[in-house]
Amino acid sequence: LSLACMEWGLSTIGIAYSGANYVFQALFRCVNGAALASILPLSQTLLVELVSFSMRGRAFGLMMVCEKIAGTLAAVSVVYFDRWQNPYYVLGIFSV
Asked: What pTM, to 2 d.p., does this model score?
């Protein structure tokens, strides 16, 4: 899970750094998609192993609510930055 988060953060920074170079944009977005595709199943597996059966539904619900809040904050943050690359840098740094 930590490796996938690190890969996600570095590829997000790579997306912002590549700028208008569409080949590197596509490459970093593919790596980013692969990292994101592995984070959710890994976090769900970890949650199942660590949380007792009686609290599992609440834990999954809380995880999904936090995921939606983070997605909304990330989408809204784009409005407050000058360049489109800056939210990618911030998200990448927080992910690493």
From this structure: 0.74
